[in-house]
Every structure is written in C-alpha cells, then in structure tokens.
Specification:
By secondary structure, the protein is an alpha/beta fold. Helix 6 runs antiparallel to helix 7. It folds into 2 domains: 146 residues, 3-Layer(aba) Sandwich (Rossmann fold); 191 residues, Up-down Bundle (Dehydroquinate synthase-like, alpha domain). The protein is globular, with a radius of gyration of 20 Å. It has a 6-stranded parallel β-sheet with strand order 1-8-5-4-2-3, with helices on both faces. It has a two-stranded antiparallel sheet with strand order 6-7. Bound molecules: zinc ion (ZN). The site of zinc ion (ZN) has 7 residues, from helix 10.
C-alpha cells in the first residue's frame, strides 16, 4: 500500500483557498485547525488565513528544531483540533509534521518554497543542539504548493530544488548498483516516481521565473516524496550524491543550499558511474539555471572536495553506492576530482 496524500494542489493563490480544500476533502469542515507559521512570510500568511478560516488557531514556530516541534505538540494537546496545517519552508513543515505525528493528528503541508524534496515526504529533519536528526513521521494528508509565495522566494532557493530533484538520477544508479552487487531489492514504483519527476525537470527548457517550469519542479519534488514513502527510505532520492552533500555540510558548514550541493554531488557521482551522456545532460541543465556544476563553483578547493568525497561513506553507514563500491584511496579520489572538474571547466 502506498501512503499517498488525499490531495495535491499546485498553483497560485493556494493559501487563500485553503479553507475550501480542508472542507472539500473533509479534513476539517468547520476549520478547527492549528496553523503553524514560520518566521518568513508568517504575518502575510496570517492576514490571509484569519478572515477565511474563522476557527483556526495560529501558532508561530521558530525554525526547524526538535524543541519547537515538542512545544507545538503541547499546544495541540490543549484543545480539540481536526488537523494541523504547516505553512512555510522546509523547517516549518518539518516541525508541523513531527508535532502532528506525536499527537496523532492529520497534517496538511503548504509549501511556500521549493528548495528541497521534503515537502511531501514521511520524514522530518530537525535540529537538536548542534546535531540534525531525521524522524519518520506520517505522510501529510494533503500537499499544497502556493506558487505566489514560491515566486517571491529567493532565486537560490528555487534553484536548490532543481539540484535536489536531479540528484534522484544518480541515486537511482546507486540503487541499481546495490541490487547488482549486493542483492538489495529495488522498488520499481519508487524508481518510476523519482525518475519521472527528475527527467521532467531535466528536459524542461523553462526557467525558475516561469510558472510552467515551477509547476514541473513542484511536481518533481512531490513525486520524490511519494517515491521515498513507497520505498520506506530515502533510497530513491539520496545516494552517493547526498553522502557527498552531507560530508560537505559536516566538514565545511554553510557552503551552499542543500540542492546546490546535491547538484554537484550528482555530477561527480555520474562521473564515477561513467555515465557520460547523463553527465553532459546534467551539466547543460545546471549551467542553464545558473547552478554550480562542480565544487569549484561552490568555492571549494580540489583538496577540500576530495576530503568530502573521502568522508562521504561515513555519513550513511550501510548505504551501498558507487563510493562504497569503488572504495577509492585518497590519491585516486584526488585524480577523479581533478579529472571531472577539468573536463567540465574546459
Ligand atoms: Zn535532498
């Protein structure tokens, strides 16, 4: 069984139409919902919601921490609610998802940016002190993307979502490699969902400023979430690309947005897989959107990136990808790092 949302709505004015969606889908006929709002467009969203959903209780949440999720869960226990609506970016949605799971309420995810594939996923990534941990949570019952807000989000955030979607392609290569080498079962439906979204973004020649492209990107990120729900793990959307990404985050924090790192990880992974046609396609697509193609575009030296590649397998123990398969030594890694970057720079 696939735990899919009851409703997926991608379009302009989605926040304003939220009351109707809740009623039509029988999530809440009278609007007795808790609405968790993040810091970003919180005031503006509250002004839209308050007159339209009379019984809603607006709760402000700060950032994506475990503490704010626990605080929100406490608020949810104080009154009767039909559902929790999280409106905002990844951090706010992750807080609302985790809190809703803790108290057993259905959760509606309303995304105001497209920076990564956590919109429709059954995973909450929350910080606790200096550490970040992933929690399995219920799938949202409805997923809404408001393109009005997405268009207001910084270009870097919209580009980031592109990189996260495209990295599905190298993650799938890694999964099939694990099947061949280790007998790990591949879920065909999860692969279909993850790849369809990524291919649509790869082949769409629009830009992050046009609505048709943003719809395709939003669909790809929703499909990625469904793929992870189907697989029961992040496998279809996270391979050696994301191991490298997590290693960069660990060794060189705040280098770039999640999806910008995923993009470079996917390019390097495609190089290691010897997928030359894929690499050329990725390169063209990333260049067209002004995304980093190599670590040099991220401001990392060859030495630093080689360090991250060497560290990468430690970020996901047990996951078998091209990195674990090749098990390269430091000198070989350094040679590959220079080779792929020189080839793309020439
Ligand atoms: Zn990701």
């Amino acid at each position: 069984m696939l735990a899919a949302p009851l409703a997926v709505e991608i379009g302009a004015g989605a926040v304003a139409d939220l009351g109707a969606l809740l009623a039509d889908r029988r999530i809440s006929t009278q609007g007795h919902v808790a609405v968790a709002l993040g810091p970003g467009y919180g005031d503006r969203i509250a002004a839209t919601i308050e007159p339209r959903i009379e019984n809603a209780e607006i709760v402000r949440v700060e950032g994506g921490s475990l503490d704010s999720a626990l605080e929100l869960a406490d608020r949810l226990r104080q009154r009767f609610f039909d559902a929790v609506v999280g409106i905002g970016g990844g951090g706010t949605l992750d807080v609302a998802k985790h809190a809703a799971s803790l108290v057993g309420l259905p959760m509606v995810a309303v995304a105001t940016n497209l920076s990564h594939d956590g919109i429709a996923s059954p995973v909450s990534s929350l910080s606790h002190g200096k550490r970040k941990a992933s929690y399995g949570v219920q799938m949202p019952v409805a997923v809404v993307v408001d393109l009005d807000f997405v268009k207001l989000s910084p270009p870097g955030m919209r580009r980031s979502g592109i990189g996260d979607a495209l990295s599905n392609l190298s993650a799938i290569d890694d999964w099939y490699l694990a099947e061949r080498e280790r007998g790990e079962p591949v879920d065909g439906l999860a692969v279909t969902l993850a790849r369809t979204g990524a291919e649509a973004v790869l082949r769409n020649d629009g830009t992050i400023d046009d609505e048709e492209f943003l719809v395709s990107l939003a669909e790809a990120l929703v499909l990625s979430g469904l793929a992870m729900a189907t697989a029961g793990s992040s496998r279809p959307c996270s391979g050696s690309d994301h191991e490298i990404l997590h290693a960069i985050d660990h060794l060189f924090p705040d280098t770039a947005h999640h999806g910008e790192l995923a993009a470079v990880g996917a390019v390097f992974a495609s190089h290691l897989h010897g997928a030359s046609r894929r690499l050329a396609e990725l390169d063209r697509c990333l260049a067209r959107h002004g995304l980093p193609r190599t670590h040099r575009d991220l401001g990392l030296s060859d030495e630093q990136f080689a360090q991250a590649v060497e560290y990468a397998p430690r970020t996901r123990p047990g996951r078998y990808t091209i990195l674990e398969h090749l098990d390269l030594g430091s000198d070989e890694i350094r040679r590959h790092v220079e080779a792929y970057a020189d080839a793309l720079d020439s």
